[in-house]
Design goal:
By secondary structure, the protein is α+β, with helices and mostly antiparallel strands. Helix content is 51%, strand content 13%. It comes from Glaciecola siphonariae.
Length: 111
Amino acid sequence: MARNYDWKTGCDVEATLSVIGGRWKPVLLFHLLKETRRFGELCKMTPNATQRMITLQLRELEEDGVIHRKVYPEVPPRVEYKLTAFGKTLEPLLLQMREWGESFKQTRDIK
C-alpha cells in the first residue's frame, strides 16, 4: 500500500523530508549505511525510541523504497533490514548531516 503524501508546498526539500524526516528515520538510516542490521540491533542502537516507533519508521522507509526488509521463516522470527540501491543514494546527505551535527555540538559546547 502506497503512502499518502500531503505536500503543502511542492518543494523538493519537503519531499525529501517526507521520506527521511522525523527524529528516528535519519538515525536508523545512518545505522544501515554500512551493513544489514537485525531489528533487535536497531533497537539497541536507538535506546530512547520505542520498539513501536522504530517499527513504524522502518515500515514507512520500506514503503518509500529506501530500505528492504527480509523476514526469515524461523522461530523465533528473524528480520533484517538493509538499504536499497535507492536508499544508498542518501549516504552523502546522511554523512553531511553527521558532520554538521558534530560542528553544531562543538559550537554550542554540547557533548
